[in-house]
Amino acid sequence: xxxxxxxxxxxxxxxxxxxxxxxxxxxxxxxxxxxxxxxxxxxxxxxxxxxxxxxxxxxxxxxxxxxxxxxxxxxxxxxxxxxxxxxxxxxxxxxxxxxxxxxxxxxxxxxxxxxxxxxxxxxxxxxxxxxxxxxxxxxxxxxxxxxxxxxxxxxxxxx
Length: 159
Description:
This protein is an alpha+beta fold. The protein has four helices and four strands.
């Protein structure tokens, strides 16, 4: 076998392994989210890291915004797992700003994830939270109509 074929097989194998582990991580997130959802309201916060550990935090809160339970996932790879995070149990989510003593002692990305969760909660309460579409695929009709509009503009603007 040639070196390129061996390299290609290793690359495809690594890609498939990463895909499987990523799906497993997404399944773990969904199961944790659903478990928290059964307890009541859930607030999520995240801070992405490219080459350094990213953080995802899930906080279960009651109707008054008091944290009942939490879980956190920190890591660089698809091997990161959710772990119990009870640091904020009994604390008011609105009070968890950068000056709060419990937040000050945390890792930098954990602080940013908590800040993100708090900000999303505030935006939800004030009604300024806009639902985002997470689809990266634009509908085909939108692309075609945009392309036709550009073509019309180019054709008729010169005459």
